[in-house]
Amino acid sequence: MPPNLLPVILGAILTLAGTLIVQILAVPPIQARTRQRERWEDDVIELRAILEESLPNAIERFRHNLYVELNSKALLDIDNLNSQQLQLARQMQDKDREAAREAEETLRQLITRVELRLNRIDHHRPTAPYWNPLRSLERRLRLNYFDVTALRYEAALDISNYDDWSARWKPLNDTGQQLHREIEKLSRSMKPPDPQRLKRVEQKAAATFNKYVTKVTRRKELKKREDSETEPQTDPPQAGS
Hints:
Layout: H1 6-75, H2 83-121, H3 131-149, H4 162-167, H5 170-189, H6 195-230
């Protein structure tokens, strides 16, 4: 073997070994993180779509269908119905009850999907304080859902006033909107929240607020001092006057 060929062979071997090491040790973790990040983005996009359109529509559908069910149920309490009218009212009630049950199940499934998507997206940097408000809103959303499903069994419920009926659904709608606003903020950056970055942002916001309060306080003190200096002095009364 020519002596000048040995360095070339050794260089090729070292290059091949380096390439293999990179392929074995570096590429798989990078690919795994990329796939994980893509799944995270897909979950955030789906969660935003649920909260933006599917959930409000499901709430409105359940609210309407349950109202119709309770109205058809109230028809059975009318005393002067003949047998034919009573049979027709029962058929209407069965149909309306089934529609309300379907709407309720659709809403329940959507709320479960919201919970599952939150479980998946908070696996990225789970120590970030960003997740605590989202988790609190998700629990409140489920509690509000239980409140409206219990309306079916509320004996003292008066459905004759539609404004009062709609007000009973306001907490559920408001919580869904708040949760949507929080996810909308997260989807703008499409990056899992960094605890250190969030901490720096919170510290900067607190410092800015404190600076503003100090500035306003100083202005008030200066204005008060100027007013006291410009206030006209009254001469004391002369003796014997």
